[in-house]
Amino acid sequence: MATSLAEIRAKLQAQENRTGGNSPGGDNAIYAHWNIAEGSSAKVRFLPDGNSKNSFFWVERLMIRLPFQGIKGQPDSKPVVVQVPCVEMYGEACPVLAEVRTWFKDKSLEEMGRKYWKKKSYLFQGFVHDNPLGDDKTPENPIRRFIISPQIFNIIKNALMDPEMENMPTDYNAGLDFTIKKTSKGGYADYSTSSWARKETSLTSAEMQAIDQFGLHNLGDFLPKKPSDVELRVIKEMFESSVDGQAYDPDRWSAYYKPAGFAGGNTASDDDAPAAKAVPAAAIKQAPAPAPAVQDDAPFDTDDVPAASAPVQTAKASSARAEDILAMIRNRQKQ
Predict the structure, then answer these.
(1) pLDDT in tens, 198-236
(2) How many whole angstroms separate alpha carbon 231 and alpha carbon 58?
(3) Phi, psi at residue 53, to the nearest 5°?
(4) DSSP per-residue letters across 257-300
(5) From CA 174, how far away is CA 158, in angstroms rounded?
(6) CA-to-CA distance for 146 and 148, rounded, in angstroms?
(7) What gap in Å lies between CA 334 and CA 330, rounded to an integer?
(8) What's the average pLDDT block by block, 10 residues per block, for the chain (335 residues)?
(9) What is the rounded distance in angstroms from the CA atom of residue 109 to the CA atom of residue 81?
(10) All domains of the chain in start order, with CATH
(11) Closest Cα partner for 298 from 30, 96, 11?
(12) What share of the chain is helix, strand, coil (3-state, %, to 5)?
């Protein structure tokens, strides 16, 4: 855990230098700030990560959204989206992005590339001080979790780099509240006017008691678990099926990854996992622990997408290219 702003600033600056300026289940413990009404604000107070080895008071989360036309075996089902972890979150090469990165070299595939690019968000924790959500109920443990988009995160980070901020904003006695303000721009939610408070305040005695009673969360515990070799193969198969415009197949995939709210049974077994030469056969026989479905509805921002080389193509044009993309993927697998 960082003990000073200087340490956080040094680490943030190091990240800036490395990246060239680009930052690399739904219970009500997650505060859904994206549901506040346009023109309203929610005031929150961030707390440190319970993991003392984390220099920051947040963790980064990378997810990939796989859209499907519906659910196989359910003729009237609507399109669904399955969120799967991008293993770049764990410092490893992502098999999906390995394919998607090549699409940005082709002008006609850029829209498809953006559709399947990783979505970045940041996980924080803290208290909600001003809550405009009338139907939101504070859980027994009032230390909430916040899924923060890159737009809001950049406001948080830039203020931390400002030398006029003298104390850690998570300090119990001299910290700062953060106001999440929702407006709109171009028909989309906009949070660019969110800001830190100018005046430092102390946590209340009730909040200090909650920290003593419940303790701080280890934020890393709320990241999706790292996929096993079998689960990586499942992700790759789901990705190819999604690109092909197929329906989500619960018989093959529900034991691993599901659409949010899907209540179907887990009928998949290890033998249902797609074959892959890179994984020993012995690994297939090991029963993997089911990966939890991601239930939150937080808005994702597509961050650090490769620069577009041409105007975005129409959905019809990109759809027509799906077969070409799949052929390209499968030809590489045969090599």
Answers:
(1) 999 999 999 999 999 999 999 999 999 999 999 999 999
(2) 26
(3) -85, -10
(4) ---TT--------GGGSPP-TTS-HHHHTS-PPPPPPP---PPP
(5) 19
(6) 6
(7) 6
(8) 66 57 54 95 97 94 96 91 95 93 91 94 97 92 96 95 91 97 93 95 97 96 94 96 95 94 55 35 32 44 56 43 55 55
(9) 20
(10) 5-334 (3.90.198.10)
(11) 30
(12) 35, 20, 50
The encoded tokens of residue 172 equal 């119990």
Query: In 10 A of CB 75, how many CB atoms?
Result: 8
Q: Give the pTM.
A: 0.72
CA angle, 287 then 289 then 294, to 5°: 145
Contacts of residue 202, Cβ cutoff 8 Å, sequence gap at least 6: 172, 173, 174, 175
- For residue 303, give the nearest of 62, 9, 104, 20 by alpha carbon: 62
Q: 165: exposed, middle or buried (C-beta count within 10 Å: 0-12, 13-18, 19+)?
A: middle
Assign 3-class secondary structure to 27-54.
CCCECCHHHCCCCCEEEEEECCCCCCCC
For residue 62, what are its two tokens? 């990378």
Place of tokens 């105007």: 311
